[in-house]
Design brief:
This protein is α/β, with parallel strands linked by helices. It contains ten helices and ten strands. The structure holds adenosine-5'-diphosphate and magnesium ion (MG).
Amino acid sequence: MEILKLVDVSYSYDGKKNVINHVSLSIEAGKYVSIIGHNGSGKSTLAKLILGLLEAASGTITIFDKVLSDKTVRELRQRIGIVFQNPDNQFIGSTVRDDIAFGLENRCVPHEQMEGIINEFAVKVSMEEYLDKEPSNLSGGQKQRVAIAGVLAMHPDIIIFDEATAMLDPKGKREIHEIAMQMRKENPGLTIISITHDIEEAFDSDEVIVLNEGQIVMRGTPENVFSRREELLKVELDLPFVYKMRNALIKEGYDVKDIKTVEGLVAFLCR
Ligand SMILES: Nc1ncnc2c1ncn2[C@@H]1O[C@H](COP(=O)(O)OP(=O)(O)O)[C@@H](O)[C@H]1O
Ligand SMILES: [Mg+2]
């Protein structure tokens, strides 16, 4: 089932240059799709259009079977969660608990159910020991985990990560990635849209969409997109490390075609 469909969507901030330029795409429910592109390619604008925070100048956005409009935006937005880049901008509450509670209060979840829900989602992101702590004292990765708990507690059908790991150290990045993988396992119906300029993160997705100057320039499985290095270089992107390494080994005559993960590569090299 198609959960999100854009048909010929354009958007301009200044009424002159299209920052999103006649974009059409569709995403199936339950897929994990990465949207990659260098800085300024239009990724965040696209996310804001999907959330109805910006209104397309032309074209239509359909979420489930409803066209996004003034009339449907409130309802549709409730079904989409987003985690932004800057962990410090995601917090409203004075404790982690308040923060996860915030969205639930907005949704009028009865108070007696709240505590259980907060705990359940804090556990999912391994932050249950921090519920009474102040968000400002957490690491970037922990902050993003709390933000994810808050979003997940709302039971969205679509979750968008807009550069959610860009400001994190490698450990923080890894943790968020693991949570995303876990989310996927636990909620097969959840659609994940991961927006990133870091091509390494697109690695595990079902599909990769490459955006450049507000247009989709490539689309396919990671395997397919990462086999087209010349095209990626043209839009200021490059291959993930494993693909580069693998290609170098193939060139040297090693049979590593089927290795697609860092772990697989390490195992091969150790042998
Ligand atoms: N609020 C804004 N007003 C005017 N121009 C903007 C605004 N936000 C983004 N832009 C411009 O739109 C283009 C796409 O930006 P953005 O969607 O943020 O790209 P990305 O998320 O891929 O880095 C850039 O040229 C950027 O400068
Ligand atoms: Mg952006």
